[in-house]
Amino acid sequence: MILASPLHAPGVQVEWLDANPQHLDTGRTDVAGFLGMAERGPLHAAVKLESVRQFHTSFGAPIERACLAYAVEGFFANGGRTCWVVRVADPLTAQPARLRVILAGASFVLEALSAGAWGNEIQVETVWGPTGIVALNASEQARSQRIELASPDGPPAQQTAATERTLLGVPASSLPELSPDLLVKVVADDARATGGWHASAAARAALAGGSDGLDALHPHHFSGNPDPQAHAPWGIDALDRIDGVSLVAAPDLMLGGFTEAATRDAQIAILGRCIARRDRIALLDLPPVGLRAALAYRRRLPDETSFGALYYPWIRIDDPLRLGGKLRTIPPSGQVAGMFARCDRLRGVHKPPANELLEGVWDLSERIDASAHAELNDAGVNAIRALPGRGVLVLGARTLHRDLEWRYINVRRLFSMIEEALEEQMQWLTFEPNNPRLWKDVERAVGGFLERMYRAGMLDGASADDAYSVRCDASTNPPSGTGDGRVTCLIGIQPPYPAEFVIVRIGVTRSGIAGEQKGALDG
User: What is the pLDDT of residue 351?
Assistant: First the structure.
């Protein structure tokens, strides 16, 4: 870097600055990814959302046979701030609604922006000017889109420049969350749009031929395209391409009408993707069955991975689709993901996501008593219980792993966060001179990172020496390793294991009752 010299003699002075970043930070761990069925929206493509309104703008209203909309709403209601949503359907049978428009001897096709029967509700009408038809107006419920024509009774102009949007009469400029095109796009004429609407003769027509692609839905549409030669992503394939997702949920997998074996295989495939990436955990639902059948289902899932967690039973929430104030029973993974995000934001990823309230949940499909809770806990299933005066709470923080070291969710997620932070923020190491100075830089950067985590309460130990250790020197980098271009840094971490059980001992003495309490719930 060349700087003007601060010395008295005029001239230029060259100063060398240390460009190596020495400060590492923890990344976000509260971003969720959802797979499910929706009314509209792009198929098998991840869409980033930061509000419930954005979900309804992109994916429409809730549909009867799915719970994705309720899961995403529960995510935000419980403290989530950012999620990615992938709409799942059979891409071969899902079709957008279309309408062939014949105008002044020319023809073109209006096509709904996404596949689905929702597009069959789009109505198109002519807009007349002094010299003829000057535009077409497409409308569906409260949304409308104006399509300008290049000339009266002529084909459409450039759509990107001429499309105007309104929602309930609000100008498009005040609706930043809306996508540029609300309803339809202009495509080349093709055989898929049968018939034709002579716009000059009829004032109004409807799009037709839209289908949801749900009748041919298969578990592979959730768990990924089984064809290794195919380039089109399915389900988890789309989330696999998104960096920063820490939680994965597919509540609609339980509502697809699949066999138990097919559903389980899809969950195992999703779990495998999380294991491969090592930066996210799968929040899995159990089928809507009784306790015995749920435990039997659990035994057929892997028990040597910490990248998944199970929750039982299903929850009951308000359902605006059903009149009379009725409740709807859905899988809990969406609301649980929001609770995870809330804990991460308020306390940190080291906090066990348990003993926490599920907002917006009014009841459970099955009431869990202490005996059933013990069975679920021993099987590695996190129980959701309704407690008098406290509401509906998640009372479990276990992964699918049976060994103590990786039994708890907060331990797994803490290590994943540290791994990802080190991987992403230490790229400056590549091609640096492999010498003791570099080893000291690495040791200093990693040590400072772990020290800040310890001071924030994210690591356990009476002192920093008990909480973590870092070594990057000649003992970890012998000539045999450095000769191959490797730098090795050994890190030891003491995670905060949760106080899962509380023991209160009470004895009667001559002077009264003496009590002794062991442990404390991590709330």
Answer: 95
- Rounded-to-integer distance, Cα 248 and Cα 501, Å: 28
**What percent of the chain is predicted at pLDDT more than 70?**
85
Q: Does 312 have pLDDT greater than 50?
A: yes
Are 225 and 336 found together in one domain?
yes
State pLDDT tens for residues 399-421.
999 999 999 999 999 999 999 99
* Contact criterion met (CB below 8 Å) for 376 and 382: yes
Q: What residues have CB less than 8 Å from 457, skipping those under 6 apart?
A: 348, 350, 496
Closest CA to 302 of 332, 275, 279: 275
Are 345 and 285 members of one domain? Answer: yes
Strands (E), 260-306: 281-285
Domain span at residue 508?
A: 426-523
Residues 472-522 pLDDT 10s: 999 999 999 898 889 999 999 999 998 777 677 777 776 665 555 554 444
Give yes or no: residues 266 and 356 share one domain: yes
The C-alpha atoms of residue 135 and residue 131 are separated, in whole angstroms, by 12
The three-class DSSP label of residue 259 is coil
In one-letter notation, the amino acid at residue 415 is F
Last residue of a domain, one of 187, 206, 225: 206
| Structural contact between residues 358 and 391, judged by C-beta atoms closer than 8 angstroms | yes
How far is Cα 212 from Cα 116, in angstroms, rounded to an integer? 4
269 to 264, 282, 481: CA distances (angstroms): 9, 10, 36
Residue 18, domain member (yes or no): no
Q: Could you tell me the CA-to-CA distances from 87 to 33, 59, 265 in Å, in that order?
A: 11, 8, 20
| Alpha-carbon span 433 to 267, nearest angstrom | 45
Indicate left, alpha or beta for 142 from its phi (over 0: left) and psi (-120 to 50: alpha). alpha
C-alpha closest to that of 134 among 100, 157, 112: 157
Domain count of the chain?
Answer: 3
Tokens 């106080």 sit on residue: 499
DSSP helix/strand/coil, 108: strand
Q: What is the pLDDT of residues 257-285, one digit of tens each?
A: 999 999 999 999 999 999 999 999 999 99
Domain with residue 289: its CATH number is 3.40.50.11780
Q: Mapped to the 3 state alphabet, what secondary structure does 17-33 carry?
A: CCCCCCCCCCCCCCCEE
Identify the pLDDT of residue 11: 66
